[in-house]
Design brief:
hydrogen dehydrogenase activity; alpha+beta; nickel; binds nickel (II) ion; globular; metal-binding; binds magnesium ion; EC 1.12.1.2; four-stranded mixed β-sheet; about 40% helix; Cytochrome-c3 Hydrogenase, chain B
Length: about 450
Amino acid sequence: MTKITINPVTRIEGHAQVTIAVNPAGEVEDAHFNVVELRGFEKFLIGAEVEEAPRITPRICGICPSAHHLAAAKATDQIFGAELPKTGRNLRELLNLGQFIHSHALHFFMLAAPDFLLGHDAPAEERNVLGLARRSPEIAKKAIAVRKFGQRLTEAVGGKPIHPGNALPGGMSAPLSEGRRTELLGMAEETLRNAQEGWEIAKGFLDDMDTSIGEVQTAFLGIADQGTYATYHGEVQVMDSTGNIVGGFTGQDYTDHIEEYSEDWSYLKFARLKTGDYYRVGPLARLNIVQSMGTGGADAALAEYRQAFGKNVQGALPYNIARYIEFLASCEKAVEMLSDSGITGSDIRTPVTGVVHRRGVGIVEAPRGTLIHDYTVNEGGFIERCNLIVATCQNNYAMDRGVFDMARRVVQDGQLSSSAANRIEMVIRAYDPCISCATHAIGRMPIDIEVIRQCR
Ligand code: MG
Ligand code: NI
């Protein structure tokens, strides 16, 4: 058996590997997306006070800490039996918007755009954010400015730009001052202008995007609020592969619909529907599920997206466009929320006393998809059992099969060229996998691609 290793695979968050098996005729027999690291937050949260979970779990990931913070806080609301007051709820939603703006801008401009703007076959040393800055300095500058707003919003509402800590059982620990609100509103308006200009670039990718690449027929999962796009409030919708909403859940009942499983070649868990169907989460799933984005510019963009790709999009690369539309929607929503001076209200928390329910399940949309935090506590409020389901696990099957599809297209006579390797990476990158979330990994950024040639 001959092994060809391509290293590194770049522009994803975390460490993973691709293995391609080639038969003696040089044809691809199978390919897998493997994640080979494990840290185990689900185990070492056991014994912690549950009110500490919103502060511990953001450490799972430096890219999507707010989502873990909010999912954990939502679970503790249930455990302590607290209904949030209006401003507390709104601040939680605003914090999630900061996360989406920061994470989506990072992915679109810095990780995905080099492929589309510089070309898939550009030399690897140019096909990155620095190459992008040389080619299109104005885009790079805008990318840095919009990310900065996302971080600033997270800091103002969450207390810190990375690993926010202000959400706690029953609400938030600090209100937003009027001075902060007006400062953030100015930044939000500028960010929205940049996002609108960027849509002109993003939609340029609509025309020649091959949606058959990495296509898998799956069901989809994502939060919607009465059919409207939402990331914090609302009900998780289950959509089957033909585009029909077939169920929904908001909390503990998630186990009626989905289950996790493992494969022996990856430490990254998988998830599927209880019906046995595979499903996906994240921007593509959410846009398939909603009827409206809830804001004008994003709704117009959604109409153009559906004109190009249809209503039930099953490809992999359209994730990149869906992600941009969500970025636009998040900017519009941030302007809307910050324009309302009610966001500075003092009704931020319902005081809590003791454990009311022994189990709490917090579900929010993270930039990469539906995030579930499930805690069971003892009567003293110490965690006895913990299950986290992150987006990357739920997209694991689709990434794996997408890699197989692309490998079949680009591996020639058992040989993998540099541009072919990048095309395989592009399928994975479209999902924006968060490997540190998914396995709670410590380690290097690159992923390896390995070709295993089977001998007769
Ligand atoms: Mg789990
Ligand atoms: Ni993450």
